[in-house]
Design brief:
Elements: H1 6-18, H2 29-36, H3 40-52, E1 56-59, E2 66-69
Antiparallel strand pairs: 1-2
Helix pairs in contact: 1-2, 2-3
Length: 75
């Protein structure tokens, strides 16, 4: 079990609610920030940490990077 801080838990929960659970349903940091009502900078920092922990995956795209959950986690 990976330990997540409260912001990371909120991000994962928001991503689950947005349906960002597969590579073909990517969500941007803007999408996630709007969903969880947090500043984009806070969301971006949390996404970097979640990516390093292997919970989400970042996919570089032409305009904005997309993110999706790679591990099933209960939050």
């Amino acid at each position: 079990m990976v330990d997540l801080n409260p912001v990371e838990k909120l991000i994962v929960k928001s991503m689950q609610e947005l349906g960002a659970t597969k590579e073909d349903s990517l969500k941007t940091a803007d999408d996630i920030a709007k969903k969880c009502s947090r500043p984009k900078s806070m969301v971006t920092n949390a996404l970097v940490m979640l990516s390093q922990k292997g919970i989400i995956k970042r996919v570089a795209r032409e305009k904005a990077a997309g993110y999706y959950i790679t591990q099933s986690i209960q939050v």
